[in-house]
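Researcher: Here's a chain I'd like modeled. Treat it as a single chain, no partners, no ligands.
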Amino acid sequence: MVLSLLMILCGDVESNPGPTNTRQGTLSKTGEVVYPEKENVGHDLMTMFQFLKSDIAELKNQVNELNIKEEVIEIKKNVKELKTANEKLNKRMDNFENRA
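Model: Modeled as a single isolated chain. Structure tokens:
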């Protein structure tokens, strides 16, 4: 320690804190590595979460507007009526063919 102080006092040696950028991130004044990607990750995730939440709400509204269940019930009712009408027409046609 004494030798390093003497070298600094000589003026030939300058103190070098080292690089401020590393592969992982930048060095803070305390010497800790700061990861800039990790600081923005939380914000980015929250933003993405908000977008997904609004998209889900919009999709729920669209599904409710479609009323698919009611339409399917109506279609089933119509098909049943058509089958009944078709059976009646087939019986009448058989009756006419038998008379002819």
